[in-house]
Amino acid sequence: MKIRLGFVAMSLKLENSSPSKTVTYKTYQGLSDDESRLYRLKKITAENLLNTLRIMIHAKAHDVQVYRITSKLVPLATHEQVIDWDYVTELSDEFSKIREWINKSHMRVSAHPDHFTLLTSAKKEVLAAAIRDLVYHDAILAAIGLGPDKGKLVIHVGGTYKDKESAKETFAENFSSLPENLRKRITLENDDKSYTASDTLFLCQRLHIPMVFDVHHHLCNPDGLPVEELLEPIFNTWQGQVLVPKVHFSTPKSPASIRSHADFIDSAAFYEFLNQAKRLNRDFDIMLEAKNKDEALFQLVQELKQYKDIDFIDGASFEI
Questions:
Q1: Where are the alpha helices (DSSP H) in 250-319?
Q2: For the segment 79-134, what is each residue's pLDDT rounded down to a tens digit?
Q3: In a domain, 166, yes or no
Q4: How far is CA 260 from CA 91, 250, 273, in A?
Q5: How far from each other are the two terminal CA atoms of the chain, in whole angstroms?
Q6: Between the N and C ends of the chain, which has fewer C-beta atoms within 10 Å?
Q7: In three state form, how does the secondary structure of 37-77 look?
């Protein structure tokens, strides 16, 4: 069973490398004219794209093959009151450099739209905002050369609105009404409060959506089923996909803040999960959602080397 490790968006090892620099709407509004506003947006986006490429090169240098780009590459991209500009064309050189790098490195790159991207809402304006956000992410992934088969979007099911079964039906209706390219990009993740792994799996099986299993969220929002029983049907939702299944793993910050992510990964808990998963003997990728990003990944790698049944292939992937 081969496992590849990845991290989210930021690097704590590279200086001045934030890919999420932004401008507030108030500041944007305060600029003198549309030319100044466009200049500010373009300048920040170009810098975010450059830093994204820097982080990818850094990741590859440490054998990291799994990476999640930030959703904040283009400041205020989905704000209805902000100038509508063609950032893909305007910054085609910056996007093409990332595209060339991904083609050369074969890195698995995904994105995770924000929590307000809700397909369970019956309100037209909420659904419209969710679709705008999905279209934005689709445009970014397409610009860096990732079609729906390789560039996936991870979203949560959404709110329950005090009637989970009805909300599930609303999700199914709204999902089915999306354009095909958006439907093919979407993967669903169980959340820490509302939709358990079983709830999410039900929708994934019904709508043929790949499911990302979040181990931490399952701890916070259990459904009574053990990990060993859930993993096989969850991994089966990836059948017919180009990519192997993906899991999210993080460590609770503390017993009092169980839903918050810790700075690092508890290697003992991680190893326990590996032993639960290895019964399936199927390759998959793990996105580490620790506060300390790449530093947490590097520390986990060092701590995993104490286990004799873990055989490292390179700096960020191993067999068990």
A1: 267-277, 293-304
A2: 999 999 999 999 999 999 999 999 999 999 999 998 889 999 999 999 999 999 99
A3: no
A4: 36, 9, 19
A5: 6
A6: N
A7: HHHHHHHHHHHHHHHHHHHHHHHHHCCCCEEECCCCCCCCC
Handedness of CA 21, 26, 30, 34 (dihedral sign): positive
| Closest-CA residue to 45 (of 24, 21, 18) | 21
Name beta bridge partners: 188.
155, 211
What torsion do the CA atoms of 239, 210, 178, 22 make, to the nearest 10 degrees?
-130
Which pTM does this prediction carry?
0.97
Task: Indicate the residue type of 68.
Answer: R
Q: Where in the sequence is the domain holding 25, given as residue range(s)?
A: 2-113+122-156+175-319
In sequence order, what DSSP letters do the residues of 121-182 get, joined into one string?
---HHHHHHHHHHHHHHHHHHHHTT--TTTSEEEEE----TT-HHHHHHHHHHHHHTS-HHH
Residue 318's pLDDT is 98
Residue 214 lies in a domain: yes
Contact 247, 212 (CB under 8 A): yes
Domain count, the chain: 1
CATH number of the domain that residue 193 is part of: 3.20.20.150
Asked, for residue 286, whether it belongs to a domain, the answer is: yes
Torsion over CA: 288, 294, 296, 301 (sign): positive
211, 200 in Cβ contact below 8 A?
Answer: yes
Residue 255 carries which side chain, given as an amino acid letter?
P
Q: How many CA atoms lie within 13 A of 172 on its CB side?
A: 16
* Residue 100 resides in a domain: yes
